[in-house]
Amino acid sequence: MVKAKAIRVHELGGPEVMRWEEVELGDPKEGEIRIRTTAIGVNFIDVYFRKGVYAAPALPFTPGMEAVGVVTAVGPGLTGRKVGDVVAYAGNPMGSYAQEQILPASVAVPVPPSVDHKQAASVMLKGMTAHVLLRRVFKVESGHTVLVHAAAGGVGSLLCQWANALGATIIGTVSNEEKAAQATQDGCHHVIIYTKEDVVARVKEITSGKGLNVVYDSVGKDTYKASIECLAPRGFLVSFGQSSGKPDPFPMSDLASKSLFLTRPSLMHYTATRDELLESAGEVFANVANGVLRVRVNHTYSLSEAARAHADLEGRKTSGSIVLIPDTDS
């Protein structure tokens, strides 16, 4: 029986509930592969599962929705995968905070040699999220005006870069001057420091009162009302996260006043088929390779220090992407 170390959550709560433990792994069954993890992406969805905002299948569980690794074993009869392949995955099954992991082969995509493992681990989930938000949920085109909340965050940074390449005018919100500088580097034409400026007033000023075509909102409770107010008639509010908590219930008349659209997309529903998954991942890796997307791996922690990474993420002490590197101890 193969044994490996992993982060395990036995009870819901703060970062301190994550424990560094040994787990047993069987051999991959039909349709499965086993990978030795080389880099793991940290995402806010991991926090949601740890706290119980999203329900994990059962306790205890290993968090993590994104990783890159080297294939160490393939299930019986499986073709198209071999030992030594470098693959990445994002989404289900949860459990990437581990030295080794068994995955359905159908969720793993090949990582081009031109893309570094840490880059791939930090961009797979966030990058496919950005692809789906910009090209599938609302198709951003040249001439659109876009607002990205948390513009210096992992997904926010990629949204700004990609939307800029598509010819949109981007307004980003951030909490401080340092993050404002990063958002500007990432293609924001206007940056609003929401701790010092009124977001709605600034958007009206920037757009000459016309409002926005789309708002990408990963913050939730603290930003919902401003997001609605900033939209132009027939504008789209794309709510894809809730780092500040769930938005309060609201009347439908909030949308009716300007014939607005509201959607709460999930990446998993837009990459449900193998073809959709390969298309989305392929677009992301191609844009990393050609320089459209610059991946900032600003923070690296040992896997055993995952609790500290979560504490820093929740404490708004991070920008760009966070990657966990598996400890080499057995």
From TrEMBL:
Pfam families: ADH_N (PF08240), ADH_zinc_N (PF00107). One of its GO terms (cellular component) is cytosol. Residues 13-324 form the Enoyl reductase (ER) domain. GO terms for molecular function: mRNA 3'-UTR AU-rich region binding; NADPH binding; quinone reductase (NADPH) activity. Keywords: NADP, Oxidoreductase. It comes from the Eukaryota. This is Probable quinone oxidoreductase. It comes from Panicum virgatum. The lineage of its organism: Eukaryota, Viridiplantae, Streptophyta, Embryophyta, Tracheophyta.
